[in-house]
Amino acid sequence: MTQADLGADHRFRGREPRILVVEDDPTVAQVVTGYLRRSGYTPVHASDGPMGLELARQMSPDLVVLDVMLPGLDGIQVLRELRVSNQVPVIMLTSLGEEEHRLRGLESGADDYLTKPFSPRELVLRVQSVLRRTSAMPPARVDGVLRVGDLLVDRTARVVSKAGRELTMPIKEFELLVFMIRNAGRVVRRDELMREVWAHNFGDASTVTVHVRRLREKIEDDPSRPALLKTVWGVGYRLDLPAAGAGLP
């Protein structure tokens, strides 16, 4: 993230974004923190799961880079503990061939992932992309509230409620929901979701699939028979507005 980017971002004005790197390999940690520091971030390193969880609670990072294989507590356990009370963006690091870990990370609330070995520059680009999207919040007079049936989506406060009950929703789920509402009635392809929500021109389709499934579990009365967020087989997904009681600003 350049200084110009930082200056345009209201949330980071006057300080560098704080990135918590939870990685037990000292060589990988040194390379990652070095690249992040040179890119305008303030990285803090934790070498095991318990230390990462404690630092996350103490420093309130703007983003967490979290390895799956960690001593003490593994990355999946750390992520699940974080998600109890914290929706900070999380990028998981998994080893080649660890598809199960990758899917478990996404299921547990990870926003993105990278497979080792990876390019540190690619990681920096992913960090930039996630922070840019999660911190760019329009003024309240423009942002408003989206309403779909008994769902209320406050884009300013980044809060979603269903029938008056607030839902716990990580950032990527929130962005996916907002994007689908704003494109209601239109079939959205998986590659378009990867591009528009995750800012990737390519990627694993399971990322989208897992996030859609998690989102349905929260917004649908019966996730096994979705009435709002529907699958269009072989193409992608479509969000259908209820016949009455729905509104977009």
TrEMBL record:
Q: Which residues bind DNA?
A: 143-241
Per the UniProt record, one Pfam family is Response_reg
Every copy of the OmpR/PhoB-type domain together lies at 143-241
Please verify whether the record's keywords include DNA-binding: yes
An example GO BP is: regulation of DNA-templated transcription
Q: Which residues carry this modification: 4-aspartylphosphate?
A: 67
Which keywords belong to this entry? Answer: DNA-binding, Phosphoprotein, Transcription, Transcription regulation, Two-component regulatory system
Please provide one cellular component term from the Gene Ontology annotations of this protein: protein-DNA complex
Which stretches make up the Response regulatory domain?
Answer: 18-131
GO molecular function annotations of the record: phosphorelay response regulator activity; transcription cis-regulatory region binding
Q: What is this protein called?
A: DNA-binding response regulator, OmpR family, contains REC and winged-helix (WHTH) domain
